[in-house]
Amino acid sequence: MILKNFKQVEKTIFGRGGFKQLGEVVDEKRSENDGFAVFLIDSYFEDKSLVIPASGDDITLYVDVQQHEPTTHQVDDIRDKILLQGLPSSITGIGGGSALDICKAVSLMVTNEGSSQLYQGLNLIKNPGVWSIGVPTISGTGAEVSMTAVLTGPEKKLGLKCEWTVLNQVILDPDLIADVPTDQWFYTGMDCYIHCIESENGILNNAYSKAFGDQSLKLCREIFAGDQAGQTGENDEKLMVASLMGGLSLTYSEVGVCHALSYGLSYVFEYRHGYANCVAFNHLEDFYPEGVKEFKEMLVRFGITLPQNLSQRWTEEDVTRMAEVSIRLEHMWHHAIGEHWKSEINIETIKDLYHRL
Length: 357
Ligand code: NAD
Ligand code: ZN
Hints:
binds nicotinamide-adenine-dinucleotide, alpha/beta, six-stranded parallel beta sheet
């Protein structure tokens, strides 16, 4: 059996005010390549007072992740703009999972020819990218530590996944997530919670992924369920760590049924990842009984209402398209159901799961 040999983030700054050190971190790399730095910033910050340490011929681009999650087309476009000026010394992504994934993908695509569509999958990237720096402004996805940059292309929603996808540096500054609106905070936070539940409930679960998953779950419970739950300064710190550990739990395990369904929802209806997960997870008590029970309590606690009877509005064609996206995520079904998942799961059973929503 060949075991995964995965790379982790090389450098991490954690703590309040850590964002102020971004300038130093970028400066350290300035002597490489053509010397300039790139900042890819979630357009949410366009009219905010975040001070970006750009100078000289650095490129600062605000990336639009409001309308849709990152696409291969969007990444190719940004890459082409950057290459007009040469090869940057570093690329920094500032934002939620979407901006981080754009940063990770662009950092690879400046050194790999052709469209990012060509590289959606495992180990298809040929050359390492340029130094990448991630600064999360929402926590939960684990994108800050994961090996994948999830992109939606004309044919599929799938990550560019290889060891060079991992960010080289992260800056985790809890102040940056302080003002996330409660619903978004909840949906993205639940991405982390669901990662841990799915990671542990499947055949790939092991001591490594369980240790990170358990610790992440413990933090999630303090943030979303305990006496001290809510958006407090202390919980913002915990959520940044929970997200990171949830992501690490997955490097040696897999997500499961909820993510397999969620990808279909995102692909066909452009639901955002965290929200799509919540919509699906709410109906998966037979797969994850304890997790779904606790999730429902957290929904009530924060007054989050999820849509009911969604599937009544969908056409049979919509449901089939989602099921087709979902069934292709074989690694997730394999982990969640087991070696012989194909005898239990087929297009029809997946359609039934969508009809529950
Ligand atoms: P997001 O990045 O999609 O952002 C959601 C919204 O919040 C956007 O409108 C954004 O502009 C806004 N926003 C960003 N920072 C904010 C702040 N501080 N305050 C207020 N609003 C803010 O949300 P997300 O849930 O962090 O990320 C979801 C994305 O992450 C999806 O594209 C998904 O595919 C990806 N993802 C990647 C991985 C991975 O391992 N690479 C894992 C899970 C999810
Ligand atoms: Zn996820």
